[in-house]
């Protein structure tokens, strides 16, 4: 059973071996190719192409599809979040991911401060 939707921050911290994310290593999670793109950029920049390709191949099987409604609700959520706090800049990928977490009935795992006090969020820094 899927336990969490891992946002880009959570996936990157997981692959860094972050102490706070160790409890989630064996947790089944989902995310989208949008998150995988953001992560691939980070892995490529910080770890090089070979390691980035390794993680990409490892995680791509856990990607779930994005449906039209996810995009519409995710964009609306991002606009609402930006209107509440102009200094918060959640990514489109993570806003869409939050909506998908709700659709799948799983917690949204993140360390992104933009989502810190929202419902259905497990915040881990």
Keywords:
four-stranded parallel beta sheet; Rossmann fold; 10% strand; 125 residues; 5 helices; single chain; alpha/beta
The class by helix and strand makeup works out as: alpha/beta
Give the second-level CATH assignment, the architecture.
3-Layer(aba) Sandwich
Give the domain tally.
1
The level 1 CATH classification is: Alpha Beta
What does this structure look like?
It is built from five helices and four strands. With 125 residues, the chain is α/β, with parallel strands linked by helices. The protein has one domain (4-123): 3-Layer(aba) Sandwich (Rossmann fold). A four-stranded parallel β-sheet has the order 2-1-3-4. Helix 1 links the parallel strand 1 (4-6) and strand 2 (29-30). Helix 1 packs parallel to helix 2. The longest helix has 17 residues, at 68-84.
List the helices and strands and how they pair.
Elements lengths: L3 E3 L1 H9 L12 E2 L2 H15 L1 H11 L8 H17 L7 H13 L2 E4 L10 E3 L2
Parallel strand pairs: 1-2, 1-3, 3-4
Quick summary of this structure?
The protein has helices at residues 8-16, 33-47, 49-59, 68-84, 92-104, and strands spanning 4-6, 29-30, 107-110, 121-123. It is 52% helix and 10% strand.
């Amino acid at each position: 059973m899927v336990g969490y939707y891992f946002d880009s921050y959570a996936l990157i911290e997981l692959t860094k071996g972050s102490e706070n994310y160790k409890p989630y290593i064996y947790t089944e999670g989902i995310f989208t190719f949008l998150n995988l793109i953001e992560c691939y950029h980070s892995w490529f920049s910080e770890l090089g192409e070979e390691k980035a390709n390794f993680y990409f191949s490892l995680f791509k099987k856990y990607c779930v599809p994005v449906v039209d409604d996810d995009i519409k609700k995710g964009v609306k959520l991002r606009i609402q979040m930006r209107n509440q706090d102009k200094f918060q800049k959640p990514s489109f990928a993570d806003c869409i991911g939050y909506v998908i977490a709700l659709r799948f009935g799983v917690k949204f795992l993140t360390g992104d401060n933009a989502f810190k006090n929202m419902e259905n969020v497990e915040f881990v820094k």
